[in-house]
Every structure is written in structure tokens, then in C-alpha cells.
Amino acid sequence: MNEQLAAAWAAEKLKSLGFENVHIETFPLVAWVRGTDHGEIVSPNTQPLAITALGQSPPTPAEGLEAEVVVFPSLDELKEAPPGSLTGKIAMVDRRQVRTQDGSGYPQVAVGRALGAGEAAARGAVGYLFRSASTDNRRLPHTGTVRFTDGRVPVPAFALSVPDADQIDRLIALGQKVRVRVFSTAAYVRDAHSQNVIAEIRGKVRPQQVVLLGAHLDSWDLGTGAIDDAAGTAIITAAAKLIRDLPHGPQSTVRIVLFGSEEIAQPVAPVQAAGGHSYVNNHKAELPLHVLAGESDLGADRIYALALPKSVAPESEFAKTVYRLLTPIGVLPASELTEAGTDIGPSVDAGVPAFQLSQDASRYFDMHHTADDTLDKIDRQQMDQNVAAWAVVAWLAANTSVDFRTAPQPTH
Known about the structure:
Layout lengths: L1 H15 L3 E14 L3 E7 L3 E3 L1 E3 L11 E8 L2 H5 L10 E4 L11 H18 L4 E5 L25 E4 L1 H12 L5 E6 L2 E15 L4 E11 L9 H19 L7 E8 L14 H9 L7 E6 L7 E5 L9 H10 L5 E2 L11 H5 L6 E4 L4 H4 L12 H19 L14
Parallel strand pairs: 5-6, 6-7, 7-8, 11-12, 11-13, 14-15
Antiparallel strand pairs: 1-10, 2-3, 2-9, 4-8, 5-9, 10-12, 14-16
């Protein structure tokens, strides 16, 4: 319900800002409702756990679920456990996330959140615990999505805060057997829907060509979604508004897409980025005329690098122009494009060229997917630098004759 209210609000806001062709495109999905969740260590001592159900996790039995915990340092080591070795136990993947500027530590641990419940169940486990994918040490668990296995999440799955994962580690290191009790009333809504919100600045010369700026409108329920991804929606909207307010409009169309349901998995393919796949399905005929696409989804801290498509040679006029404008605000050339973005990923897979404005993620995973994802974490000065960088790239892409799908251009 809140996501749909947000979409309606966003559409009205975009209209009031003067954007054109503002509309909402809905699509069906299976939704997940958290309900109530909690947990505790019941032996060798008793202690409440800072715990939260992972997205798409099924509920526990009404009386809760109690079992001994078996800890694995990584998902790979869980996969090495033989079938039946975890019968009646709760498996726990305990890999710590490394803090990095580019966020590259996250995918290495998040795979354990996505796939761990299925792997644990395949070895007889009745439940799954996951050390939060995080770089903080606060007693706040980080939620996130679990992938379905054969159309379902087979066992209840929970994220532990970092201090609580550490406590279980200490007890086991002392030779103790640790038993926990977990509880969840999570539920599924099978006939739900989500939506993408779309708005444009129509091109004055080549309106059929599109520069796509994306972010996602949904967020996890524990916090307010300020850094994930209200910040991204604000950044691309503000950048596009700067372009709209210029005396002369762009030659190609600049399109904003606020995607729905980036954060949740689905029982059947496509398993994630439902909004991204819906966009491709609805705009398939237009995709060959999409000039370039980018996505803002890593908070609001400063942009430090720009990666352009391989078709743009570093010595080309386009590259020289964009970096001449961005270098003074601290944005340098990136060696390669490493991650286009989850929501624009389906468009990129369909052949749309992408660019990547890399944000400083050094503190992002302290707050990501937690109750601490609130507006006070936004640094306005750094966010303004984001907006400037996005406006530069979008404006130049919408006013160039460069074909970003072709081989590198020679120097002129």
C-alpha cells in the first residue's frame, strides 16, 4: 500500500515540476508482508537477539522454531556440508562484509543471504540465520531478499545484527552448543501489483531517442528508505529538472523511470528487478532507440568516477568534453563499467548502452536495509554534487550525435 501511495505522490510531483507524459505502468507480483518477528538464545544462556526476518521468508510455526545453530564461515562451506548433515538444525552463514569505497564487498556476502536458506534446507536444516550484510557494528539487523527455490523459500530465514552474530561465535568458540528460538508471522499476498512511474522531457530534435535515468521507488520497511533509494529518485529527478529548466531543451528525450519492486524476489523468473523487466516488456519496440541509460542506487554520497560505454574512446570528443566538465567537481574517468544497476539491467541485457556514475559507498552499508536508513543520513552538499554530475552526463548524452552502440570513435 505505501509503495502505491508513493507512486501516486511521485506522479503528481513530477507533473507539478513540469515533466511531460507522466504516467504509471502497473505489473503483477507476489508481495510479502513482514508481520512480527523476534528471536533469542535459549542455551547455554538466555539472551534476546536483534534479529529480523529476511524478505520472502515464510513464517515459523505458531509456537516459534527452536533448534541448535550450526555455523558456516561462508556460503561455499555450507554448500560443502553433506545432505542430511543439518537435519533438525538451524544453519548460519557468518561471512563478514569488507568496507570498500565502491561497495564491492557487498555482493560477496549478499549471495549468502539470497541463496543460503535454499542450501540449508537441501541439507535438512529447519531454519536459516545470516550475519547481516553490513559494515557497521550497531545492534541493528539488515534485512534483504531471499531467493525462491522451486517456487518457494523452504525454511524461515533471519538476519542477525553484527554484535549478535559475534555473540554466537564467542559461545561456540568456548565449546558451547548454542540453541536459539526464532519467531515470524510473515505472509504472502499472491494477487498484488507494483508499478513504474515514468516522466519525460521530450526531445526537440530526436524525440524518439531516449536517455534513460533510473532509480527505484520501493524500499525495505525497517527504515524510511532515505538512502535506498529515495536519494536516487531525488538525484535523477533534480538532474532532469535542471535540464528541463534550461532555455533550450535537449535534442533527444530524457526519460525518468522510478522503478517498482527492485528489492523483492519472485517465485518464478524473472526472480528480481520486476520493475526493470516490466519496463523492457512494455517498451521493447523503443529499446533500439534508447541512446544511453544510467541508474542511481547507492545512496547520496559523492560521485568519484564515471564509466562510459566501451564504444566511447577516451580520446573522443564526447569523453574529453564530459570529463572536462566533471573533473572540477571531483569525478574522474573509471577504467571500466562494473555495475550498470539492477533495474536498468534488463534494458542493458536487451542492448541499451549504459554509463556508471560511481558513488562513495564507504558508509552506505552501515545503514543499508536497516531502521537507520533515515533522512538525517543524507549529506546535502554531497547530494548536490551528485545532481550536478548526473545533469552533465544526461545533457551531453541527449545532445550528441554519438552512437554509443558502435565501435570507438576516432579522434577528431
